[in-house]
Amino acid sequence: MNRPCCDEELLPISALQHLIFCDRQAALIHLERIWLDNPLTVEGKDLHRVVDSLAADDRGGLRVRRGIALRSERLGLTGKADVVEFHPTSGGSAGVSLPGEKGSWRIVPVEYKRGRPKSHRADEVQLCAQGMCLEEVFGTEVYEGFLFYARTRRREKVRLTEELRGLTERTATSLHALIASGRTPMRQRERKCDSCSLLPVCLPPGRNRPRSVAKYLDAAFSEASTVPEDP
Fold it and tell me: Has residue 106 been placed in a domain?
């Protein structure tokens, strides 16, 4: 996939996860600019604030950097890495150089998540996209990364295989197509909707069929304007 683009056309890496979870959710957030918090999203934001507040960490042979800006013109994505680890390479392995450091370093992205591993692959795709962005930024190959889940306190290794890279590219292509269409898809309620913070505006109580948030708000204001004033 080749997508040379200007900064205004770059989409957030996080939107890949929204799309895999639900294309309607992705459209509500990234087309209609609607966002609501619930306890799950607040918990996730708090976790990322803690991670972002930590300083650079050098221990042993490992170098840890936080908040590295990410960009991929090929995928048309932009974002920021939670954590990027730089591991010293050995045996002539290819890597990158670091300012003020000797030798060559292998890049390993680490993404922090509030919950547990999921049944779908949204977390893996988001991590893979970060790795592919880092490849463009540093001009080297990224072979693997880690997902750290706060609920289990465990890191899950993710290998950036050709299969996962292909899935990530297809998801990025679908995301750009969704945004370019300018249309919010229609969806019926599913079990997963219960965990979505946008449920109150996506599927308001008493509505069996979802509709555009903009139309819902327009109708609500229209109804309010027709209520007669008290004498």
Answer: yes
